[in-house]
């Protein structure tokens, strides 16, 4: 089912736009030299064929244009090659697609050459204005250019062009000569996209992101409107909605009692789901897809909320507005702690700087039951099983997290008083706080308190029932007894120990 972005601010975004959009932005563009065209013929930028390249890094390198011809290419051709990058969908393997786009731009020599060109902004505008979204169909290359029927593009590639515009890496796009035209083009793009069912969260978020940037630059806005637009831009347009009266976000309480801010985000279209599946398999053929792409939840939500029992899907960001900590609240209590124990680590958190801090956090993953592997949701990409180092490059290195060893008291159905002989009593673990999430089995032990090494004589204490977190027993002789419960994870690690001292009397 398709979900639409709320559009209560679009009257603001696009008011005062002329209905007329210049069809051909003036630009001095020369045709490519035929010899340079022949060199590009077998490039993955033209063929989209990356077979024979194993790693993502190798595939990125295969998409570079030989430096010997790069400077000879006209600016228009550079823009078209950016729109042909077969790995453009990597942008959406990041929680913030602008971060993914910047990785692609920084590591693609065609874009680096484009940045140098004085007519880069004009050529980008010309290309963006020439895209016809009104006839987009659910096929691999659904988008065409006006008057150029042979030139068709994937949706993710056009999104990359829009992310380039939104990134301001070509700053002249937003200067006084171009910004009004950009506003008109973006209005037309949004109106065409929202009328086509192939565009969901991905396709609609990019013109909204561009429009947010435009309005912050040219409109006089009240402080509340400005705040919400700024927050949308910080998220790359992906984990926020445009609705001044009701931001669809809420706080949820985690196992350690801390509250984290989450967002409710619309789903991708069926076309976008399939496109992200395809780009995942092209980029990382060795991973295993566990469930389809989705924009309703991300890696942090999967690792830290869904796998901890909060099954409603959310988009959970590491940092929330005003740069406050968010994700780290989850391990601020006694539940998880950083460890160097790779054998027993349950989760890993990736970060992109020299020090581990909230603003550097990029990704979260959980340990898979398949030895050596982890499982995680890559941005809006699918849920994936992968090796810990087989991830997008900008995720960085990682810290391991282990369930904190918990040492507590057992609850007793008799309360804290004396237990009567021959009375059935239940001893249970307090599961409301401090209970590990991967308990495979438990053991209950009863011993004499006067000599903890001695097991109770057969018949003095009888265990009638056990489960992972409770035991039912009765005592046939008065005395002081120690009751122990040890919890073990599936890999055999002792993760918790509870105890209780029971006084049993005849009366």
Tell me about this structure.
It contains 15 helices and 23 strands. By secondary structure, the protein is an alpha+beta fold. The chain has three domains: 225 residues, no CATH class; 155 residues, no CATH class; 100 residues, Sandwich (Immunoglobulin-like). The chain has a seven-stranded antiparallel sheet with strand order 6-13-12-11-10-14-9. It is elongated. The N terminus is likely disordered.
Summarize the structure.
The chain has three domains: about 10-235, no CATH class; about 250-405, no CATH class; about 405-505, Immunoglobulin-like (Sandwich).
Write the SSE topology.
Blueprint: H1 10-14, H2 34-40, H3 44-47, H4 56-62, H5 67-70, H6 75-82, H7 97-106, H8 109-116, H9 120-130, E1 131-132, E2 143-145, E3 148-153, H10 155-167, H11 179-194, H12 201-218, H13 223-234, E4 249-253, E5 259-263, H14 270-283, E6 288-291, H15 299-304, E7 319-320, E8 324-325, E9 336-339, E10 347-351, E11 361-367, E12 374-377, E13 383-386, E14 397-403, E15 406-409, E16 411-412, E17 419-420, E18 425-428, E19 439-448, E20 461-466, E21 470-475, E22 479-489, E23 494-505
Parallel strand pairs: 15-23, 17-23
Antiparallel strand pairs: 1-2, 2-3, 4-5, 6-13, 7-8, 9-14, 10-11, 10-14, 11-12, 12-13, 16-18, 18-21, 19-22, 20-21, 22-23
Helix pairs in contact: 6-8, 6-9, 7-10, 10-12, 11-12, 12-13
């Amino acid at each position: 089912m398709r979900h639409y972005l709320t559009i209560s601010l679009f009257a603001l975004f696009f008011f005062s736009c002329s209905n007329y959009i210049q069809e051909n932005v003036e630009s001095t563009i020369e045709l490519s030299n035929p010899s340079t065209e022949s060199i590009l013929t077998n490039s993955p930028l033209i063929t989209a064929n990356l077979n024979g390249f194993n790693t993502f890094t190798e595939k990125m390198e295969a998409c570079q244009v030989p430096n010997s011809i790069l400077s000879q290419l006209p600016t228009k051709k550079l823009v078209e090659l950016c729109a042909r990058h077969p790995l453009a969908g990597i942008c959406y393997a990041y929680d913030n697609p602008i971060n993914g786009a910047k990785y692609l731009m920084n590591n693609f020599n065609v874009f680096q050459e484009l940045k140098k060109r004085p007519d880069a902004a004009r050529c980008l505008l010309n290309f963006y204005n020439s895209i016809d979204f009104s006839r987009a169909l659910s096929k691999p290359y659904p988008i065409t250019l006006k008057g150029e029927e042979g030139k068709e593009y994937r949706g993710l590639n056009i999104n990359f062009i829009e992310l380039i515009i939104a990134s301001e890496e070509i700053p002249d796009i937003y200067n006084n000569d171009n910004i009004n035209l950009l506003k008109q083009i973006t209005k037309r793009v949004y109106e065409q996209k929202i009328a086509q069912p192939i565009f969901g969260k991905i396709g609609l978020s990019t013109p909204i992101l561009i429009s947010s940037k435009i309005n912050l630059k040219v409109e006089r806005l009240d402080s509340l409107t400005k705040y919400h637009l700024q927050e949308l831009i910080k998220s790359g347009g992906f984990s926020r909605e445009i609705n001044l009266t009701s931001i669809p976000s809420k706080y949820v309480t985690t196992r350690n009692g801390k509250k984290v801010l989450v967002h409710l985000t619309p789903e991708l279209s069926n076309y976008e789901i399939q496109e992200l599946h395809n780009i995942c398999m092209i980029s990382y053929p060795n991973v295993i897809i566990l469930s389809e792409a989705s924009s309703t939840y991300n890696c942090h939500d999967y690792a830290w909320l869904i796998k901890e029992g909060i099954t409603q899907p959310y988009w959970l960001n590491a940092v929330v507005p005003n740069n406050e900590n968010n994700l780290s609240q989850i391990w601020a209590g006694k539940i998880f702690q950083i460890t160097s124990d790779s054998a027993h680590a349950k989760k890993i958190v990736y970060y992109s700087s020299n020090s581990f801090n909230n603003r550097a956090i990029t990704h979260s993953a959980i340990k898979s039951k398949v030895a050596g592997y982890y499982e995680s949701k890559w941005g809006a990409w699918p849920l994936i099983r992968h090796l810990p180092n087989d991830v997008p490059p900008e995720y960085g290195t990682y810290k391991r997290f282990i369930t904190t060893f918990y040492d507590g008291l057992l609850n007793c159905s008799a309360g804290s008083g004396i237990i009567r002989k021959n009375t059935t009593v239940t001893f249970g673990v307090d599961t409301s706080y401090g209970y590990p999430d991967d308990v495979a089995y438990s053991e209950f032990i009863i011993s004499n308190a006067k000599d903890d090494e001695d097991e109770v004589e057969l018949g003095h204490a009888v265990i009638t029932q056990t489960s992972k977190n409770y035991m039912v027993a009765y005592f046939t002789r008065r005395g002081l007894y120690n009751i122990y419960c040890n919890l073990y994870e599936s890999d055999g690690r002792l993760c918790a120990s509870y105890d209780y001292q029971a006084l049993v009397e005849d009366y």
